[in-house]
Predict the structure.
Amino acid sequence: MEDAQLYASANAMQKRDALLVLTEFLPQMAWQEEGEMILDIGCGSGDVTRNLLMPLLPRVEKVTGVDLSHEMVNFASKTFQHNSLAFQQLDIERVIQPRQVFPEGFTKVFSFYCLHWVKGQENCLTNIFQLLQPGGETLLVFLASNPLFTMYEIMSQKPQWQQYMQDVSNYIPSYQHKTDPVQAMVDVAEDVGFEVLSCEAPQFEFVFENINYLKNAIKAVSPFLKRLPQEQRETFLMECLQELAKLKTCRDDGKMAARYHLMIAHFQRPE
């Protein structure tokens, strides 16, 4: 996900789901009168942070968006400037002593469509726990399972693509093959020290209006595409679409639909 401009133009599913979840959960959160210190983990191109999250927040003192990708952070900083908003690079899984990076910590931590890329779930949640002030809340929204990842596993077995996808397991969500992903998530959160306010993994569906939009959506998030020779990338993308069609993603009207389970976790750091 290094093409920030492409991601910003092809993330309608992510934006729709973030809006749905925020609309439901923001009223359930406790909000301070003096304003909040907000962190958005995996801010990507910054459009969700600036145009969706910030306008919905009741009271804000400062919002910080962090992302693993320097390119995404640079794009977000240039494109979505605001006097209450800052972006910086941070690896939430591997950062050591995150309160040295953010000494004041945060009252709320959000993350949308990021944590399915994180293999070290316990490290990640531990760092979020440390970044939260006592009594602070976190709302984490990410893919528990998605046919996209099944497609990657299938593609990685094909001789033509195998050499570029030998580490495919690193890009499969931790909960993709869990029989009870919610309980697995709750277990990790409680081990870290969180109070679990709610955790669920409902099924969602998103319909792509045309095949080109779906292709761009895959292109925007594929960790493998940049490894391929330029002349093979279009073939790879078309094969990805063919494999997704075999996974019953095609509707009766011919449109492609993503049917997936979305992990929605609302935790609190005890006082």
User: Anything to note?
Assistant: Residues 154 and 209 are 25 Å apart (CA to CA). The chain has a mean pLDDT of 92. The chain has eleven helices and eight strands.
